[in-house]
Amino acid sequence: MNIIIIGAGEVGYHLAGKLSKDNDIVLIEENVNKIKHVSENLDVKVIHGSGSNPATLQEADIESADILVATADKDEINMVACLFANILSPRTIKIARIRNSEFIKYKEIFSSDLLNIDLIINPELEVVKTILRLLEAPGALDIIDFAEGMVKLIGIKVHPICPVSGIKLRDLEKRGLNQDILIAAIIRNNQLIIPTGEDKVISGDIVYVVSKKEKVPQTLALFGKRTESISKALIVGGGKIGGILASELEKRHIQTKIIEKDQTKCAHLAEKLEKTIVLEGNGTDHTILKEENVQDMDIVIAVTGQDDQNVLISLLAQNLGAKRTLTLINNTTYLPLVSAIGLEITVSPALSAISAMLRYVRKEKVLSVMPLKGEYAEAMEVIATEDSQLVKRPLWNLAFPKGAIIVAIVRDKDVIIPSGRSVIAPGDRVIIFSSMDTLTKLEKFWC
């Protein structure tokens, strides 16, 4: 496909990197330093200019573009770019990142009569959705929903006291692993392993486990994770993300406190929120965290606008005895470093936004695509058609490429964790786990 991406920031750069292997990408950017960085690291065509300029869009050949993704730092640029794209090439699918919630309130702006935007992404809302999914599975580093939530792909860090550490996967059934759970991947020393029965999980690994929705507590317990539901939460940072998250936690009847150093923001939060306790103060202050009995909180969520503060807050909370911390990281290059210092549960607005965008830039038979933490692999949900190579034969006979594995089959309301003998039927929803290098080899199986 021909895809135009406007903006080479966190979202635009990483999205271009993910799509450049199997699509023709044109990236539009005004900042010359960002252009240099893209040119040195990505195999994409780069145009120096503004995406809101119709001449620049024509230079990028908007008439031939299948998809336009507007991810510039300013909402106004993204909206104007979609406006001109709609005039110049009405058939082009348009995706726009819109941060200002005031714009989103006026839905008529984005209607087919004016901007005709197919998908609007608000990174703050997307990252809140990610946080809420993680709160539903205490102990998970990552959790991805498929088939309307019937199938869960759960990322878990293996610790030294993990009950299944050092045991061959084929022997795990004796330890409680059954047909409802499948270890789909192991990330070890920044390398992705699609495991066989002879592989083991060891301390330090991140494993991705496929589970039926109702088996999530059992899955977490198998890896030695606490599965008690969250009843008390402390949020540090009262910006957009913190405010939206507190409102959502109130709906879930979770006792919530929020610390914010800006007096005006505190007043706004106190007026908006009904049950949340709003505290004015600096979340990096050891004394304040101690006074608020951080050790009694089920989770401390650091979502200020500054990565260094979020890291410090989470480390302080851990030192004071917090059961669990969750850290917002805006700069995705920091994610490996943050994990290395012991902050395991992190979220990124950029990665959350990319996850929401990807399903619109795959072929129509692909229902959803989700990148994993660290961008080692993707998990995707596809529809098996009558003429698909996936159907009517046992999985062991599919000659699936190395680096990919079918991890679940959804047939009507039934979830099947497959074995080599399983057979996919036309109309089944098939969930596939694949390394990034293998993605292009997979399309023939469902096209």
Write a structural description.
The structure is a single chain. 28% of the residues lie in helices and 25% in strands. With 447 residues, it is of the alpha/beta class. The protein folds into four domains: 2-121, Rossmann fold (3-Layer(aba) Sandwich), CATH 3.40.50; 139-222, 2-Layer Sandwich (Alpha-Beta Plaits); 232-322 and 324-352, NAD(P)-binding Rossmann-like Domain (Rossmann fold, 3-Layer(aba) Sandwich); 365-445, Alpha-Beta Plaits. Strands 3-2-1-4-5-6 form a six-stranded parallel sheet, sandwiched between helices. It has a six-stranded parallel sheet with strand order 14-13-12-15-16-17, with helices on both faces. A five-stranded antiparallel sheet has the order 7-8-11-9-10. A hairpin with a 2-residue loop joins strand 20 and strand 21 (414-416).
Annotation keywords:
6-stranded parallel beta sheet; alpha/beta; 447 residues; Rossmann fold; Alpha-Beta Plaits; single chain; 22 strands; 25% strand
CATH architecture of the largest domain: 3-Layer(aba) Sandwich
The largest β sheet comes out as:
6 strands, parallel
Shape: globular
Strands side by side in the biggest sheet: 3-2-1-4-5-6
Number of strands: 22
Count of distinct structural domains: 4
Helical proportion?
Answer: 25-40%
| Class based on secondary structure composition and strand pairing | alpha/beta
- Secondary structure tally, helices: 14
The level 1 CATH classification of the largest domain is Alpha Beta
Q: What Rg do the Cα atoms give?
A: 23 Å
What is the CATH topology assignment of the largest domain?
Answer: Rossmann fold
- Average pLDDT works out at 87
> What proportion of the residues form beta strands (DSSP E)?
25-35%
